[in-house]
Amino acid sequence: MIRFLSSLYDNYIKPYFASGLEEADRSHKNKILKAGRLIRNTLLPAAVRADAARDIGILSYTGDEKTCLYYRRTPFFFIVFKTGSRMIRFLSSLYVNYIKPYFASGLEEADRSHKNKILKAGRLIRNTLLPAAVRADAARDIGILSYTGGYEHAADKYMASMVELLKTPDLTDQHIIRLLEGLSAICYLHVANQDKAQALGLPDTLLEFVSPTSKLSFTSQHWSCYLLNILGCHNIPIICHLKGSEALQSSLEKLASLDWEKWPLNHAQELLKVLGFQRNSMKDALHEEDELKGCTYTESGHMLVNMHINYRY
Fold first, then answer.
1. Which domain holds residue 265?
2. Is the model's pLDDT at 232 over the cut of 50?
3. Pair (244, 125) in one structural domain
4. Is the pLDDT of residue 20 over 70?
5. Of the residues 72, 104, 136, the one at which a domain ends
6. Is the pLDDT at 25 greater than 50, yes or no?
7. Same domain, 122 and 69
8. pLDDT tens across 294-308, in order?
9. Any idea of the CA torsion for 128, 130, 134, 135, to the nearest 10 degrees?
10. pLDDT tens digits for 116-156?
């Protein structure tokens, strides 16, 4: 397959992009003149003249349009010229999408490009002289880039700056949401990054965001609940830390009663279940045996240790 594509490129595509323009023009002109004599010879069979019309169309499209202007009056030409155009475009598209990638040595370059994007965003978020909006956008970009393949470049270097910016007073809701988006992507199913976030005091900041005294918008509190769920996923120490908060249960119950229609799950409700603050009678009946063993199930399908059991590190 590779050899076939390489041969197709060398024989049919590459010549159209060759640097020998003047020679190509002369060659095209001669071929067009030869085909033109054939198509104007009414004594020749229609099949020969049709082939000549097709050749004129392809040749004119690929290098010498002026020479064949005269032959465009031939009825055969109008149909075949469009066919030739489509063929050239098809071959060009085939080369760009399916042939070129096999011969490009751009795998390492792509990785470096991904890393460079993270480094560029990292420089922005570390620059305290920049506006908060620019730094917040950079934090969201770092989160997306780290989630799609760059965890090792993002967490240790930039999480501290992201959490520090999140704790900055007088941030707007939009800035806070972008920071929460970035931190959610970095910590998603990544225990080491979750531990890093706990060391930076992120759970305590989120507890303040969801508290009844918080002045944040409901959307920001949505994202705060979502990030708390991510931090507690498969991370018992963080769950224990959250369960030790006295006001968290009432805060989550209030948030759970509000509108979560645009979210796939009510993350405040989920967090109440994970922390053992709320029981589901149906699930308790179905999983009574697991409850006795100290396990509970949440709506999202994760089985987590029931925090009613005394857990010791």
1. 108-275
2. yes
3. yes
4. no
5. 104
6. no
7. no
8. 554 444 444 333 333
9. 0
10. 888 889 999 999 999 999 999 999 999 988 888 766 655 56
What are the beta bridge partners of residue 297? 303
In sequence order, what are the residues at sequence separation of 6 or more whose Cβ sits closer than 8 angstroms to the Cβ of residue 144?
182, 185
Long-range contacts of 189-194 (CB under 8 A, 24+ apart): 189/230, 189/233, 189/234, 190/151, 190/155, 191/234, 191/235, 192/155, 193/151, 193/155, 193/159, 194/230, 194/231, 194/233, 194/235, 194/238
Q: In terms of domains, do 121 and 256 share one?
A: yes
Residues 118 and 261 in one domain: yes
Backbone angle region of 259, left / alpha / beta, with phi > 0 → left and psi within -120 to 50 → alpha = beta
Q: Up-side HSE of residue 101: CA atoms within 13 Å toward CB?
A: 7
Q: Is residue 156 part of a domain?
A: yes
- 70 & 148 share domain: no
* pTM confidence score: 0.56
**Residues 115, 53: Cα–Cα separation, whole Å:** 53
User: Helix, strand or coil for residue 305?
Assistant: strand
pLDDT at 279: 61
Report the C-alpha gap between 108 and 113 in whole angstroms: 8
Mean pLDDT, rounded, for 198-208: 95
55, 61, 65, 70 alpha-carbon torsion, rounded to 10°? 40
Whether the Cβ atoms of residue 180 and residue 227 lie closer than 8 Å to each other: yes
Is there a contact between 311 and 236 (Cβ–Cβ < 8 Å)? yes
DSSP state of 15: G
